[in-house]
Every structure is written in structure tokens, then in C-alpha cells.
């Protein structure tokens, strides 16, 4: 996880323009007020993709579906003393029941 927010598309465009003019990465970093590493990464990413946009699909992927999230929330609110381990166990039982139900139809 980054320590600071990511650069806006406008700042990335400025970095590319300043780089094409011939400024060094250190000079660009001082002018834009960001780290040299951010400048270097932006230039490299632009050379690879020719875009200023952020990459999509970053971060950890979801393990639960929206339905499972609703189920967990309902059960947690129903019995506030239930531990995360108990909620997980109930969710596993529910998912197995759904699996058995679907497999019995075929």
C-alpha cells in the first residue's frame, strides 16, 4: 500500500511533458513536488502503455460474494456476541448447502 495518494492524471501529463522537454527526473520531482521514484514510475508506465490512467484491477480480490456479505452482516447483527470464527463456520455450512442443492438438481 502506498504511503501517499497516487498522482492525478494531470500531474502525470505534466511529468511526461517536462520529460520530453529534457528535464531530469530530479528536476521534474522538485517542480511537481513528488518523489523521484514516482516520476520514474510514471515515465516507465507511459512508455509501456502510452496512457496516463491508473491500472485497473489492483488490490486484493474479493473472496466472498455480495450474497455471502449480506448473510454475514445479517447474522452478525442478529447475534452480536457471535465470533468471526463462528460466522465463518456458518458461512461454510451455507456454501456447502448451496453446493449440495445445486448438485442434486443435475
Compact summary:
With 106 residues, this protein is mainly alpha-helical. It contains 5 helices and no strands.
Helix-strand blueprint:
Blueprint: H1 9-21, H2 25-32, H3 36-49, H4 66-78, H5 84-105
Helix pairs in contact: 1-2, 1-3, 2-3
Structural overview:
The protein is mostly helical. It folds into 2 domains: 41 residues; 40 residues, no CATH class. 66% of the residues lie in helices and 0% in strands. It contains 5 helices and no strands. This is Transposase IS30-like HTH domain-containing protein. It is found in: Nucleus. Its main location: nucleus.
Helical residue percent? Answer: 55-70%
Look at the helices and sheets and give the structural class: mainly alpha
Number of domains: 2
Radius of gyration: 24 Å
Q: Secondary-structure element order, as H and E? A: HHHHH
Beta-strand percentage?
Answer: under 5%
The total count of helices amounts to 5
On the 0 to 100 scale, the average pLDDT is 83
Task: Determine the N-to-C terminus distance.
Answer: 45 Å
**Number of beta strands:** 0
Low-pLDDT parts are: none
The largest sheet is: none
Overall geometry: elongated
Protein name: Transposase IS30-like HTH domain-containing protein
GO cellular component, one term: nucleus
Pfam families: HTH_23
Subcellular location: Nucleus
